[in-house]
């Protein structure tokens, strides 16, 4: 009886395997396409959803950003193993990285390269001992009382000036350093300086955690208006 049962289950398993193989053979082109697409997104280029406001005003909630996975390394697909180093991140680059300390993928801007000494005083950066220049931009958000809740400034980071957002009431992250970036690491900050858990929270970013460079908004959905498309942000360079 036991042998009959084993034979029955064996025949049943073989029959199921044959059915699966027939389905694979029948849909092999579609399966190959899915596999190649996954490899492409893992090693060549990808798009990432941005759910938070840590990179305001550059990247807004609901943006889908295009990420060049070949900007810095040719990696073994689905791993962090670098097969060939193509370039090093530059000051001002917006990077994606898999942070071990935060236990999630983050998007931040590189501010400090290995060997740079940086400090922050009241949200103003000092680069190798010299204060960066800041210029106010005509952007602000009013709170419920009609007062400005934040302001937008142009920060003259060497190599890439860019916009940052500062709260009228600075957060506890508004001061640090001076610190010197160690070899093989980078200091990365969010453009929304008072609302970003960046290197001031998680420490320096190891080179091997960096997975790509964000360079453009693919498209954007507005979560406050039924996720309607923001046409003005399609293919917007960042």
UniProtKB/TrEMBL annotation:
Membrane topology: Multi-pass membrane protein
InterPro entries reported in the protein's UniProt record: LexA/Signal_pep-like_sf, Pept_S26A_signal_pept_1, Pept_S26A_signal_pept_1_Lys-AS, Peptidase_S26
A Pfam family the protein falls into: Peptidase_S26
Peptidase S26 domain boundaries: 28-215
Substrates-to-products reaction catalysed: Cleavage of hydrophobic, N-terminal signal or leader sequences from secreted and periplasmic proteins
Annotated compartments: Membrane
Signal sequence region: none
Alphabetical list of PROSITE patterns matching this protein: SPASE_I_2
A GO biological process held by the record: signal peptide processing
Domain of life: Bacteria
Residues the record marks as active site: 54, 108
CDD domains linked: S26_SPase_I
Enzyme Commission numbers on file: 3.4.21.89
UniProt keyword annotations, A-Z: Hydrolase, Protease
Annotated Gene Ontology cellular component terms: membrane
Chief place of localization: membrane
UniProt keyword Methyltransferase present: no
NCBIfam families per the UniProt record, alphabetical: sigpep_I_bact
Family note: Belongs to the peptidase S26 family.
Name the record gives this protein: Signal peptidase I
Lineage, top ranks: Bacteria, Pseudomonadati, Pseudomonadota, Gammaproteobacteria, Alteromonadales
